[in-house]
Amino acid sequence: MTLPALLAIGAYADWDVPDMQEGFDLLQIASASALAGVDVARRQGIKAVAYKGHNPFGATEMDLLPSLEIIANYGVGYDAIDVEAATKRGVRVTNTPDVLNDDVADLAVAMLLSFTRNMAFNAAWQARGDWAEKGDPPLARKFSGARAGIMGLGRIGREIADRLAAFKMEIHYHSRSKKNTPAGWVWHETPEGLAAACDYMVVALVGGKATENYVSRDVIAAMGADAVIANISRGTTIDEDALLEALEAGHIRGAALDVFRVEPQFDPRFLALKNVYLQPHQGSATVETRKGMGALQRANIRAHLAGKRLLTPVN
């Protein structure tokens, strides 16, 4: 029996590959840009793509795969995939939501805590021997009891809000409409309104053209001088130049960032700042969650090829 062809695009972990080989004729390439170099006959037989990466996968790439039926994205954010182009071609798109919510929310809180309590600075202070020679490091700031704002109260945003509520924080949020939330949570109709109302603002928006620069120069200007912004969504959701200018000028207290407009070659101006806490896009980066993401990605592919309902459809 001929096995269905599966094209895996991106760098997959060792634990993912054996399951991809189970029941599939697997072809692996490093990125979508390598697709044109694949043998034409091999490309023509590919019905399913397991996609992992942030480089664009659009109409040009899809047209190189005339038998393509499904693109299963590894990750909750699918802004790299041109969903409109896929829909026009009858290609289904899936993603891997929910399995990574906890890890991303945990990291958002960890970054804010690390920034606020000067944890990286204090660890370096101790490692250099400054504690013994100079005494205690400068005082940090209190985290609990502040006003927290969530920009985008979706699945991940709600998990972040629940965690911050446990820190006795007053919860504010902005979304297109009011959500069913605990009593006392405050909805703001505009992003500027949210920015003006909170001490800590966490960006948890979906990526894509609709949210590009959603946290605009005006939104950043609306933040108070003692406010901190955190981003665990996509680098495109923030006007990065406006953010850098605000940080450099001290117009806001600081930023905790896991994502950047260009990755991994992010703007070097961030490294010159003392009022930032930076992570290299690590939101879902735990063994447990990455295994769950891969399993859900493959489950969607298998469901489609078996004529069953998709577990997490995008289109």
Give the gist of this structure.
This protein has 315 residues and is α/β, with parallel strands linked by helices. It has two domains: 5-97 and 287-305, Rossmann fold (3-Layer(aba) Sandwich); 101-278, Rossmann fold. The chain has twelve helices and twelve strands.
Strand order of the largest sheet: 8-7-6-9-10-11-12
- What is the rounded Rg? 22 Å
Tell me how many strands there are.
12
- How many helix segments? 12
Count of structural domains: 2
Q: What name goes with the CATH superfamily of the largest domain?
A: NAD(P)-binding Rossmann-like Domain
Helix content: 25-40%
CATH architecture field of the largest domain: 3-Layer(aba) Sandwich
How does the major sheet shape up? 7 strands, parallel
Show unreliable segments: none
What is the H/E order? EHEHEHEHEHHHEHEEHEHEHEEH
How is the secondary structure organized here?
Layout: E1 5-9, H1 17-21, E2 25-29, H2 40-44, E3 46-51, H3 59-63, E4 70-73, H4 83-88, E5 92-94, H5 101-116, H6 119-127, H7 130-134, E6 147-151, H8 155-165, E7 170-174, E8 186-188, H9 191-197, E9 200-203, H10 217-222, E10 228-231, H11 240-249, E11 254-257, E12 276-278, H12 287-305
Parallel strand pairs: 1-2, 1-3, 3-4, 4-5, 6-7, 6-9, 7-8, 9-10, 10-11, 11-12
